Amino acid sequence: MKKAIFFDRDGVIVENIDGEAPPKKEDLKLNLESVPVMKGLLQKGYSIFVISNQPDVALGKINENVKKALLKKFRELLGENNISANIYYCFHHPRGIIKKYAKDCDCRKPKPGMLLKAIHDYKIDPSKSFIIGDRATDVKAGSLAGFKTILLDPENSEENYLLEYKVKPDFIIKRMSDVIRVIEENS
C-alpha cells in the first residue's frame, strides 16, 4: 500500500482571494510555498492528491464555463511546476441553488468520501498518509479516513471551528514550509 499526502486546494496550494476560492482564472495563483513542499514530497516517494470542495457553481457564484476554466488553469499551474497530482473535487452543496449540485453528499468535506475513494482507487495506506488543510472540515475528513492531520492556521482562526466539528489536528503549522519537517519527524 502507498503513502500519500493529501492537500486541500484553496488557501493551501492556491492563494485565497478575500478568504475565498479565486472566482476567475486570472486570479488563480499557486501559493509560492506550496510548490517546493509538493516537489519535496514527490521526491521523498509520496503520491500527491488534491481534495477540494468547490461549491461555487452550486451556490450560483460562478457558471460552468468559469468552473472549467479554473480547473484547467489549476492543472496547468501544477504542470508548469512539474507537479504530478491526482485531483478529487466535490461540486455539491446542501444549500445549492443549481439543482444538479444541490445535495448533501458523502464527498463534501467534512465527510471523508473523496478520501475514501482515493484510498480505494490508489491503494493508499491511511496510517502512512497525511492531509494538509486550512479548515476544520479538512481535519475532520482526514481524521475520519484515518490520516494524520496537519492544520495550516497562520492566524489561529480555526479554533472555534475545531470545537464545532469536535476534532483536533495532529499538528498545527503556521507556514507551508513546515510541512516537510512535520512529515519527516512523524512518518
Q: Could you explain the architecture of this structure?
A:
The protein contains six helices and six strands. The relative contact order is 0.17. The chain has helices spanning 34-43, 64-80, 113-122, 136-145, 159-164, 179-185, and strands at residues 4-7, 47-53, 86-90, 130-133, 148-152, 171-173. Strands 3-2-1-4-5-6 form a six-stranded parallel sheet, with helices on both faces. It is of the alpha/beta class and 187 residues long. The protein has a domain at 43-155 and 173-187: HAD superfamily/HAD-like (Rossmann fold), CATH 3.40.50. The model has no long low-confidence stretch (mean pLDDT 96).
List its salient traits:
6 helices; Rossmann fold; 187 residues; 6-stranded parallel β-sheet; alpha/beta; 32% helix
Query: What is the helix fraction of residues, given as a range?
Result: 25-40%
Q: What is the third-level CATH name, the topology of the domain at 43-155 and 173-187?
A: Rossmann fold
CATH architecture of the domain at 43-155 and 173-187: 3-Layer(aba) Sandwich
The proportion of residues in beta strands is 5-15%
Mean pLDDT: 96
Structural class: alpha/beta
Main sheet characteristics:
6 strands, parallel
- List the secondary-structure elements in sequence, H or E: EHEHEHEHEHEH
Top-tier CATH class of the domain at 43-155 and 173-187: Alpha Beta
DSSP summary: helix tally: 6
Poorly predicted runs are: none
Tally of strands: 6
CA radius of gyration: 16 Å
**Which shape, going by the Cα principal axes?**
globular
The CATH homologous superfamily of the domain at 43-155 and 173-187: HAD superfamily/HAD-like
Q: Write out the strand line-up for the largest beta sheet, numbering strands in chain order.
A: 3-2-1-4-5-6
Termini Cα gap: 15 Å
